[in-house]
Amino acid sequence: MTESFVAMLRRLLVADYGSLKQRLARRFGSSDFAGEVLHEAWLHLNHLEGSGAEASVRNPAAYLYRLALNIAVDQKRADSRWLAKAEIESYCSLAVNELDPGRVAEARSELSTLSRALENIPPRRRAIFVASRLENLSHKEIAERYGVTVRIVDRELKAALDYFSEVLEKKLAPRRGPRPLKTS
């Protein structure tokens, strides 16, 4: 592109700055972001000098808007790769809360209670629970291993989880796997 074409694009940018900023602000939801994009477009025009693409530009106003859109998209992509300050603070506070001695003691107490409760359930129910939750076997694999039906596996797991809920006096996380068929 010749110097005169770049100068013409700059004049066009200055002349249409308000409308370009408004269009970009509508598209991206921020007037400040639109201003930054137009500033980057102004700087980008320096790189166009001597590129020889002047002949391919038929509509300079549309070219300028497309240039600004491309810059905006590139900036949005780059920004999405970084964590926001609030996200970083959230992760830091989670790490601090996880190391809270009170929570650690409570978790150890619950684990001890669950360990004792696991010893108090019938052997088949315990084996099915361990296979499901610790070995991550599917209900079908557990049924084949112990020579029972998938429905019995479901019932045994439900009974174990209900018992653990009573022991801990609160609901445990929702169970995984297929739900048993309801009979009325």
TrEMBL record:
Residues 114-161 form the RNA polymerase sigma factor 70 region 4 type domain. The keyword Transcription regulation applies. The keyword Transcription applies. GO terms for molecular function: DNA binding; sigma factor activity. It comes from the Bacteria. Keywords: Sigma factor, Transcription, Transcription regulation. InterPro entries: RNA_pol_sigma-70-like (IPR039425), RNA_pol_sigma-70_dom (IPR014284), RNA_pol_sigma70_r4_t2 (IPR013249), RNA_pol_sigma_r2 (IPR013325), RNA_pol_sigma_r3/r4-like (IPR013324), WH-like_DNA-bd_sf (IPR036388). One of its GO terms (biological process) is DNA-templated transcription initiation. It holds the Pfam family Sigma70_r4_2. NCBIfam families: sigma70-ECF (TIGR02937). Belongs to the sigma-70 factor family. ECF subfamily. This is RNA polymerase sigma factor 70 region 4 type 2 domain-containing protein. It comes from Telmatospirillum siberiense.
